[in-house]
Amino acid sequence: MLEVLDTTLRDGEQTPGVAFTPPEKLQIARMLLGQLRVDRIEVGSARVSDGENDGAKAIIRWADARGELDAVELLGFIDRGKSVNWIHNIGGKCVNLLGKGSEHHCRVQLKKTPRQHMDEVAREIELAEKLGISVNLYLEDWSNGMKDSPDYVFDMVRTAAQLPVRRIMLADTLGILTPEEVTRDLDWMYYAFPDLRFDFHAHNDYGLATANSLAAVRAGISGVHTTVNGLGERAGNQPLAQLVVATHDLTERRTRIHEKMLVRAAEMIQSVSGKRCSWNMPITGESVFTQTCGVHADGDKKGELYCSALVPERFGCARQYALGKLAGKASIECNLDELGLELDPEVREKVLQTVIRLGDRKKQIDAADLPFIIADVLNRPVGTRLQVTDYRVESRCHKPPKALVTVSFDGKTIEESASGDGGFDAFMKAIRKILRKLKLANPRLMDYKVRIPPGGKTDALVETSITWAVDGRIVVTSGVECDQLAAAIVATEKMLNMILPADQGPVQEKLP
Q1: Which of 470, 474, 477, 482 has its CA nearest to residue 495?
Q2: Is 459 exposed, middle or buried (0-12, 13-18, 19+ CB in 10 A)?
Q3: What are phi and psi of 286, to 5 degrees?
Q4: 3-state SS, residue 6
Q5: Are 201 and 186 spatial neighbours (Cβ–Cβ below 8 Å)?
Q6: Residue 230 host element (H or E)
Q7: Which residues contact 303 (CB under 8 A, 6 or more apart)?
Q8: Closest to 163 in 3D by CA, of 191, 189, 203, 134
Q9: What number of other Cβ atoms are within 10 A of residue 264's Cβ?
Q10: Helix-strand-coil split of the chain, %, nearest 5
Q11: According to DSSP H, which parts of 256-308 are helical?
Q12: DSSP string of 68-137?
């Protein structure tokens, strides 16, 4: 079984612009250990700040109550016992001690001889043992150490092997290794020290983090370090989702990670960190389960010819078929099936040609646009049972925004008000009250994106695109207006009518 240490809460915070509050740290720790089931988490660095102290304390208390305190680790430094004592005082039981894995780092940054550094490392480990704290030893810049000073590396590991150290953590700090070099260097390490437990810590500077971690897994590494969404300095660390799925599918080894939680974890970290995944990031990117080419949609419809082991259902997602100039009949049919719509062949062909024409003009087309395109082709208006006929949203300094919303449903007028954390939040809370009165489904907002043309002025058109979870499926709607809130309201009204076809009565209430 491959151990996974996730360091989102430590190395992930080295991402420019990312700093988690103590409550956020506790929430992330609960998700990592409780839902994702990672083996260990590195939750911060010793002696950094009061916030780091508070966050680590909260996680330690929570983990101790669950009997998982051994899974919580903190980075400590060679500082004459200050880090170790700090960890002891907050109740921690494991320190990941930062040692130097290359002679160059040792002599230039520390201005120490190798023997001086090794002696200092030994003293820190002995102090930790006296305080009842277990030790893992980081070898920072190990990758360069193996290139330039392998004798130094082996002397460091030989010294650590004689001390109470649980694991030696081999860090490719600058992300310079290739898979071939990882395999060669680990073979040397295991040949010299067959009984030691090694972790591999990859960075992604050349885009090789997953390939390098996979090479380490195949070489027999005991554990691999990750961050959710690959957060970290420069190009980031090893992304958790990619490591887990590549290990499960491309090797004979396994992890304890709950795969269905990978995308949810990615969404949570995007929200808390403010750092979005790339649209095409494997497993967690917003478009990785979207087929654009009509040939692919046709192949999937006839026999899942363009599906691999990475089926979206495996991760709690659904495959989507993009609409645009590359769409074919199968793309249209897949989207119509999703919407529960049937069209005569000649109408379907006209809809396809309209989609291709709009796509050729670089217009983004979503499934939610299809009813409007169909109505245009048939030259008749789209039936809307539910309309937002009026709204008023107020924002004042030092007061929560308020919204008053009026809706018409089957000729019946309903008005509700609410306050929220923002204008759209207040609007949605008023809408939810109305939906409860009508006993209509209450979709869950998954994502909210705003797009303004590059160089757009304050009066530029705004496109607001919202992703909703509705009855186990994903729906994306968008609105275009001069005002961002107005665009979001248009997108919301589209969604409500999309999930409530004109020939369907009220559905049972379903709260998020």
Answers
A1: 477
A2: exposed
A3: -70, -20
A4: strand
A5: no
A6: none
A7: none
A8: 134
A9: 17
A10: 45, 20, 35
A11: 262-273, 294-303
A12: -GGGEEEEE-SSTTHHHHHHHHTT--EEEEEEESSHHHHHHTS---HHHHHHHHHHHHHHHHHTT-EEEE
Model confidence at 137, pLDDT cuts 50, 70, 90, reads very high
The confidence score (pLDDT) of residue 297 equals 57
Residue type, 353: Q
Q: Which two tokens stand for residue 509?
A: 């209430």
- In sequence order, what are the residues at sequence separation of 6 or more whose Cβ sits closer than 8 angstroms to the Cβ of residue 283? 239, 241, 242, 245, 262, 263, 266, 310, 315
Question: What Rg value do the Cα atoms of the chain yield, rounded?
Answer: 27
Among residues 286, 480, 229, 274, which one has the least CA distance to residue 369?
Answer: 480
394 among known catalytic residues: no
Cα 360 to chain centroid distance, Å, stands at 32
What CATH number labels 386-498? Answer: 3.30.160.270
295 vs 412 pLDDT, higher one: 412
HEC string for 360-422: HCCCCECHHHHHHHHHHHHCCCCCCCEEEEEEEEEEECCEEEEEEEEEEECCEEEEEEEECCC
Cβ atoms of 403 and 430 closer than 8 Å: yes
Separation between Cα atoms, residue 179 and residue 174, nearest integer Å: 15
- 284 secondary structure, DSSP code: T
Torsion from C-alpha of 54, 55, 60, 66, nearest 10 degrees: 130
For 3-273, CATH number? 3.20.20.70
Amino acid at 242: Q
Q: How is the beta sheet containing 444-451 ordered, strand by strand?
A: 444-451, 462-470, 473-481
Pick the catalytic residue from 10, 40, 167, 348. 10
Catalytic residue, candidates 140, 286, 333, 493: 140
**Token pair in block for residue 47:** 């002696």
Tokens at 268, concatenated: 């949570």
**Domain residues of the chain, as ranges?**
3-273, 290-378, 386-498
Return the DSSP state at 239: B
Q: Which residue has the tokens 């005991």?
A: 222
Cα 181 from chain centroid?
29
> Whose CA is closest to 476, among 507, 446, 442?
446
- The Cα–Cα gap between 106 and 152 comes to 10
pLDDT class for 456, splitting at 50, 70, 90?
Answer: low
Q: Please answer whether residues 68 and 33 qualify as being in contact, where contact means their C-beta atoms are separated by less than 8 angstroms.
A: yes
pLDDT in tens, 393-444: 999 888 899 999 999 998 899 999 999 999 999 999 999 999 999 888 788 8
d(C-alpha 24, C-alpha 461), whole Å: 35
How is residue 406 written in tokens?
Answer: 């009026």
**Is 348 annotated in the active site?**
no
pTM above 0.90, yes or no: no
* Residue 344: C-alpha distances to residues 259, 297, 372, 374, 382 (Å): 41, 20, 17, 11, 18
d(CA 59, CA 64): 8
CA atoms of 248 and 437, how far apart (whole Å)? 47
